[in-house]
Amino acid sequence: MAGAERGGGRPAEQEPVVSLVDVLEEDEELENEACAVLGGSDSEKCSYSQGSVKRQALYACSTCTPEGEEPAGICLACSYECHGSHKLFELYTKRNFRCDCGNSKFKNLECKLLPEKGKLNSGNKYNDNFFGLYCICKRPYPDPEDEIPDEMIQCVVCEDWFHGRHLGAIPPESGDFQEMVCQACMKRCSFLWAYAAQLAVPTVTKIITAEDDGVLNVDGTEDQKVIKAENGTNNHESIPEESILEKGKVIREENKTEQVDEPSTSSGSESDLQTVSMNEHQNTESHSVCKLQDLKTKKYVKQDTATYWPHNWRNKLCTCSDCMKMYADLEILFLTDEYDTVLAYENKGKSDQGTDRRDPLMDTLNSMNRVQQVELICEYNDLKTELKDYLRRFADEGTVVKREDIQQFFEEFQSRKRRRLDGMQYYCS
């Protein structure tokens, strides 16, 4: 009876109620996340034969290539077949990479899927991520010694991962931006500051509040004051000053930024341009006009911070011949490729997995009466709980779950289920 009490006068503890719709939605979300990261990668065939894959899920094996050895990356299929019992670092996705498994960097391992491989992949690029270290602090993730909850964000240029507090500018809400360029890459690709004035998502770089009379430590090394991000000209949107003053004090630190007012490199003054004949004007328009040179005629600010960019910001980059040469020299031509983004990769994975896919659980559910539906929920929850506990062991040990491990789990699960059913007593009323 609802509301009944047990001994001691305490209300009966109610079991948490979870609807099957909630369960299915949660599983669908997890499945979509898996498809997003792995959907574009083959779990059975080594990607080496495809050459430098535009973007794929990658792993590094600390068992085969520990710190001190040469860095190496392996594809999804090789992480299963060749390194199943090894300790792996998940690298998420990397661009233009060819699987290293079994090449000269692996002293005592031959690739089981494609033994015939070249000694080295000269086109591959590596960083500290391949040894499980991230950010400017060169710490592992998750970091057992770091008690500060912080989001890790990947730089779209160098593809390293950074703590939000180590980027020099407090990240906007995750839904407000699509990509991030770290401080080092902004310094190397300084032309991006001219675009940032018009396109980047506004940020507040440093904040100190009056209430705690303390510090929100942005870079982890020193106490910070407040400065308002001035990423552009007068029409640049920023966080309203009044809302910041309600919480603390805004202090401008003009010496921390470098205001740039570069003249256009195009020849001729404004008056000269006004006297150009109609034919000459049409000929000029027929050639690609450099957007960057136009932006450089406006004031913008260079700062020692990361920048955050909205969806489709890359479409606004100039693709004239001079700019394309500059991108090639800086090795960032990928910024002009709309399919290079992680979002495009994730959407492809979801699309490939979702094609002609039916949900057998929903089909079965629709054919059941209510009693059968409740029984299915109970069975499903039991399976989910036991599978979660089983997989946690692999996560704690840092090993990959192989096909035979899953088969063993279900065999043992069915055996336990039969023993439970055999021990049940049925009564008629």
From TrEMBL:
EC number: 2.3.2.27
One term under GO cellular component: cytoplasm
Organism domain of life: Eukaryota
Keywords associated with the record: Isopeptide bond, Metal-binding, Phosphoprotein, Transferase, Ubl conjugation, Ubl conjugation pathway, Zinc, Zinc-finger
Lineage: Eukaryota, Metazoa, Chordata, Craniata, Vertebrata
Entries under Pfam families matching the protein: zf-UBR (PF02207)
Record-linked InterPro entries: UBR7, UBR7-like_UBR-box, Znf_FYVE_PHD, Znf_RING/FYVE/PHD, Znf_UBR
Protein's recorded name: Putative E3 ubiquitin-protein ligase UBR7
Key word Zinc present: yes
Segments forming UBR-type zinc fingers: 44-116
UBR-type domain residues: 44-116
PANTHER family associated with the record: E3 UBIQUITIN-PROTEIN LIGASE UBR7, E3 UBIQUITIN-PROTEIN LIGASE UBR7-RELATED
Enzyme class: transferase
Pathway as given in its UniProt record: Protein modification; protein ubiquitination
UniProt catalytic activity: S-ubiquitinyl-[E2 ubiquitin-conjugating enzyme]-L-cysteine + [acceptor protein]-L-lysine = [E2 ubiquitin-conjugating enzyme]-L-cysteine + N(6)-ubiquitinyl-[acceptor protein]-L-lysine
Compositional bias segments (type: Polar residues): 262-287
Compositionally biased spans, kind Basic and acidic residues: 244-259
Biological function: E3 ubiquitin-protein ligase which is a component of the N-end rule pathway. Recognizes and binds to proteins bearing specific N-terminal residues that are destabilizing according to the N-end rule, leading to their ubiquitination and subsequent degradation.
MF terms (GO), sorted A to Z: ubiquitin protein ligase activity; zinc ion binding
